[in-house]
Design goal:
heterodimer; A: 224 residues; alpha+beta; four-stranded mixed sheet; 56% helix; B: 242 residues; Glutaredoxin; Glutathione S-transferase Yfyf (Class Pi), Chain A, domain 2; 4 strands; globular; Glutathione_S-Trfase (chain B); Glutathione S-transferase (chain B); EC 2.5.1.18 (chain B); GST_C_Tau (chain B); cytoplasm (chain B)
Chain lengths: 224, 242
């Protein structure tokens, strides 16, 4: 239907959630307009497109808005099923497992990393955040196992969901979360493999630039 | 009826709204299943093995394969049992995104407001929890108006994905109102939701699996008492150390 209509992405350069959408759009070779948002002074367009949460990313397509990164990625996969199908078409069980693990990234990994930079170093809650982060990375490492990608042989939904967070490994280390190459070597190798794809290389943040950005976030929003 | 050779087992807990969503989905699809009530203070081997990551209910085990997370299970049922009645999710990608959005909202905003209310130790915290709960209800009222397009359900004239998502909480809405003296889906403030709640509760497939509200009220009161006890213990401990 509306596959050829105009596509716009409201996003923020550093957002791993926005990067998921950029990767999915690139995988599907969909042309779109990228509009960088200023979250300190939200645009009329953003407020109108996501009145409930007022957050990025938001995908605008055929005059309608789709919010929440994983929902956007599923929407992109369903609207442009090829090339590069992200969820396997004929395997409900594999689809369920992919959705489960994508949610795990949001519920566990993102939650830990937020506590890691927000909370005061040395406090028990910060120590807990470090432990929880290690646990999350170890769990993801075990789930990946010996496979090339989380879905098996092809780059897919969980890979898209997780790969933007690999740019955060450097930040995790700086905040005492441990060294990724020691904690989760398979994930590190998997991240390199994913970055060979143009869609990923173009989307994910530079780890050092990201760390500087997180320092700014900590100064602005972190526990005093 | 179960499709030939399909074995469905649901690990749940009577008061879990998330497990109830799956029971509702199975009931609406006419799928028979074996139900296992878990004691979450003493989790079964099967639960731990089937959901090693979270060790939570619900878990649906289909021919020995576990599926976890309530709305992931609901989508799985749509996809694995295409012959079992109309799917909960519509076919259009945009409509699917909208349905998933509102199901997600129910967890993120409505449920978390309830958690805040249950955990509230001070009058201030209770007031904040109440405010959040009522705000979420109002937003959902708008969602129902948009999604239903004048029909009885979020899914239109038949129960859909968001109806199942909210349906899991239907019995708790009544219990919660009783425990906290609220009127969340109030006929004056949120008329569509109030009508939805009554209508949903009357459906045969819903009635077949809904828990007893009285039991939920008891549980809710117990949780409230535990929160109060924890608060006074903390207050006493704080007083001793200051």
């Amino acid at each position: 239907m509306a596959a050829t209509e105009e596509v716009t992405l409201l996003d923020l350069w550093a957002s791993p959630f926005g990067q998921r959408c950029r990767i999915a759009l690139a995988e599907k070779k969909v042309e779109y307009e990228y509009i960088e948002q200023n979250l300190a002074d939200k645009s009329e367009l953003l407020l109108r497109s996501n009145p409930v949460h007022k957050k990025i990313p938001v995908l605008l397509h055929a005059g309608r808005s789709i919010c929440e990164s994983l929902l956007i990625v599923e929407y992109i996969d369903e609207t442009w099923p090829s090339p590069s199908p992200l969820l396997p078409a004929d395997d409900p069980y594999a689809r369920a497992r992919a959705r489960f693990w994508a949610r795990y990234v949001d519920d566990k990994l993102f939650d830990c990393q937020t506590r890691l930079w927000k909370l005061k170093s040395g406090e028990p809650a910060h120590e807990q955040a470090k432990e929880d982060l290690v646990q999350a990375l170890t769990t993801l490492e075990a789930e990946l196992g010996d496979r090339d990608y989380f879905g098996g042989e092809a780059f897919g939904f969980v890979d898209v969901a997780l790969v933007p967070f690999t740019a955060w490994f450097h930040t995790y280390e700086k905040f005492g979360g441990g060294v990724a190459e020691e904690l989760c070597p398979r994930l590190v190798a998997w991240a390199h493999r994913c970055k060979e794809r143009n869609s990923v290389a173009m989307a994910i943040a530079d780890p050092h630039k990201l760390y500087d950005f997180v320092l700014y976030l900590k100064q602005k929003f972190g526990a005093k | 009826m179960a499709v030939g050779g399909d074995e469905l087992k649901l690990l749940g807990m009577f008061s879990s709204p998330f497990a109830l969503r799956v029971k509702l989905a199975l009931s609406f699809k006419g799928l028979s299943f074996q139900y296992v009530e878990e004691d979450l203070r003493n989790k079964s081997e099967l639960l731990v093995v089937s959901n090693p990551v979270h060790r939570k209910v619900p878990v649906l085990i289909h021919n020995g394969l576990p599926v976890c997370e309530s709305m992931v299970i609901v989508q799985y049922l749509d996809e694995a049992f295409p012959g079992a009645g109309a799917p909960f999710l519509p076919s259009d990608p945009y409509d699917r995104a909208v349905a998933r959005f509102w199901a997600s909202y129910i967890d993120e905003k409505l449920f978390s407001a309830w958690v805040a209310l249950f955990a509230a130790k001070t009058e201030e915290e209770k007031a904040e929890g109440t405010k959040q709960t009522l705000a979420a209800a109002e937003t959902l009222e708008g969602a129902l108006r948009e999604c239903s397009k004048g029909n009885p359900f979020f899914g239109g004239d038949a129960v859909g994905y968001v109806d199942v998502a909210l349906g899991g909480f239907a019995a708790w809405v009544h219990a919660f109102d009783e425990v906290h003296g609220l009127r969340q889906f109030d006929a004056a403030r949120t008329p569509l939701l109030a009508a939805w709640l009554a209508r949903f509760g009357e459906l045969d497939s819903a009635k077949a699996v809904m828990p007893d509200v009285g039991r939920l009220v008891e549980r809710g009161k117990m949780m409230q008492a535990q929160a109060a006890a924890a608060a006074s213990t903390a207050a006493t401990a704080a007083a001793k150390t200051s």
